[in-house]
Amino acid sequence: MRRSPGKAPGGHPSMSAPRRISGPAGRAPRPGPRGEPAAQPPLAERHRNHFFALPPPPAVRKGLALLAAELPDAVGGRAEPAHRLHLTLLFLGPLPPGHEAALIAAGAAAAAACAPCEVALDHLGRFPRSDVVWAGPSSPPDPALPALHAALRRGCAAVPTVRRPEKFAPHVTLLRGSGPEDEVPAEPVGPWHWRAGRFVLLRTDPTPDGRVYTVLGEWPLAGTPVS
């Protein structure tokens, strides 16, 4: 993902406007007539998810995509496309209309306060009662990584959302739709390492062709040169 010129709230470089990889734009909810409740948001808006993430560099993305392509033979499911691979920093889920600006402000504040972090991915895992298989670290992460998560969480504390997990488990989703009875291979993978100097705010929009990612903001972490 290439950075476009522009400034986010707080004076930090960000996207000048949201950019969508592909897919149609969603519609805004319409208020109902006087005395009637407001119309429900369109289904697409109710299924939009928002989250902050670290995009892996091209070499890491390529390695993860190759691994993801092999996994369905072992555990079933479908591999995530390479362009959607990311390490989730904070997942927020759907939001009421009008709150994306608050997320952009939270991202700018966290970028100014947090340092770059080292990321390592060397084993596969699956969350309980989940059909998702992911790559993550087998040992505690660089303290700068949970510090970034905590800063984003604090910045988003006033944003109404149904999802703001307290426990941070850094991971890159590789595969979805795996049956719960399938065991994840136990052998080490990678390892993949990179120094994360920037993060993004993403929104997913459901379309007939699958989920589309839109970049709402992008920031360098404190001390990272701006290219």
Topology:
Layout: E1 7-8, E2 12-13, E3 19-20, H1 43-46, E4 49-54, H2 58-75, E5 78-79, E6 87-93, H3 100-113, E7 117-121, E8 123-125, E9 133-136, H4 144-155, E10 172-176, E11 192-196, E12 198-207, E13 210-220
Supply database-style keywords.
single chain; 227 residues; alpha+beta
Regions with little confidence, pLDDT below 50 for 5+ residues = 1-16, 21-32, 37-44
Mean pLDDT: 80
Strand content: 25-35%
Integer-rounded radius of gyration: 18 Å
Question: What is the CA-CA span between the terminal residues?
Answer: 13 Å
Largest sheet: 5 strands, antiparallel
Shape: globular
- The tally of strands reads 13
The residue fraction in helices comes out at: 10-25%
H/E element order: EEEHEHEEHEEEHEEEE
Q: Count helical runs.
A: 4
Derived from helix and strand composition plus strand pairing, the structural class reads alpha+beta
**Main sheet: which strands, in order across?**
3-13-12-4-6
Q: Could you explain how this protein is built, in words?
A:
- With 227 residues, this protein is α+β, with helices and mostly antiparallel strands.
- The protein is built from four helices and 13 strands.
- The strands form four sheets. Strands 3-13-12-4-6 form a five-stranded antiparallel sheet.
- A hairpin with a 2-residue loop joins strand 12 and strand 13.
Outline of this structure?
With 227 residues, the protein is α+β, with helices and mostly antiparallel strands.
